[in-house]
Specification:
The protein is an alpha/beta fold and about 190 residues long. The chain folds into two domains: about 1-15 and about 65-190, Alpha-Beta Complex (Spore Coat Polysaccharide Biosynthesis Protein SpsA, Chain A), CATH 3.90.550; about 15-65, no CATH class. Helix content is about 35%, strand content about 20%. The protein is built from six helices and six strands. It has helices spanning about 1-10, 25-35, 55-65, 80-90, 145-150, 175-190, and strands spanning about 20, 40, 70, 100-105, 135-145, 160-165. The protein has a four-stranded mixed sheet. The chain is globular, with a radius of gyration of 19 Å.
């Protein structure tokens, strides 16, 4: 899956260096053979599914010297170079933001577990397309600064810029169903159907 995202990143001239962090010998060898990338090996103390993103980012930023970082994942294979460029342009635009992350706007009626409405009123049923959208962090892309991460210890700063991504690019593969959906969407894209 990581080939798709690396191909998209390589099409974005604003990206000066692509670093692939992995603990897999197979991925490291394949990436070095197929792409002009830097391989960053994950140290033993950061191995395992229970390791959170913040310790990994702390390690990444200690190994890669840059003022600004764009982070994406192999589990987001459908994001395109155009969307990545758009996020970079939005990040560079004047504003009071200290980071950027991608979101999926969702216009549905949400409830707390006890039945209380979150984003609507039970007394007024309006069409879902007229609801104020809630923004779901979709994990497709993050832009952060070394200074901001060091100060806060998190990739999302005090003043984030939320960048909506197209639904067909916003698939985040976390389970087998997500993988099947991403695989089908990619096949449709390659066939020119979407």
């Amino acid at each position: 899956m990581y080939h798709w995202i690396v191909d998209a990143l390589l099409q974005v001239s604003d990206i000066e260096r692509i670093v692939i962090e992995t603990d897999s010998d197979r991925i490291a060898e394949d990436a070095a053979r197929n792409f002009p990338v830097t391989i960053l090996r994950r140290p033993p103390e950061l191995l395992g599914d229970e390791v959170g993103i913040n310790p990994l980012l702390t390690y990444h930023l200690s190994q890669i010297d840059a003022p600004v970082y764009l982070q994406t994942h192999s589990t987001n294979p459908l994001i395109t170079a155009a969307t990545i460029r758009g996020a970079i342009d939005a990040w560079r635009a004047p504003g009071n933001h200290d980071c950027l992350f991608t979101v999926s706007p969702i216009q549905q009626r949400f409830y707390w577990p006890d039945g209380r409405p979150i984003n609507h009123s039970l007394n007024e049923v309006i069409q879902t397309q007229n609801l104020i959208p809630l923004m779901a962090e979709n994990s497709c892309l993050y832009i952060l600064t070394k200074r901001g991460f060091t100060a806060r210890g998190h990739r999302i700063g005090e003043r984030p810029l939320l960048y909506p991504t197209p639904p067909l690019e916003s698939v985040d593969v976390d389970n087998e169903w997500d993988f099947t959906m991403a695989e089908q969407l990619m096949a449709m894209r390659l066939a020119g159907k979407i």
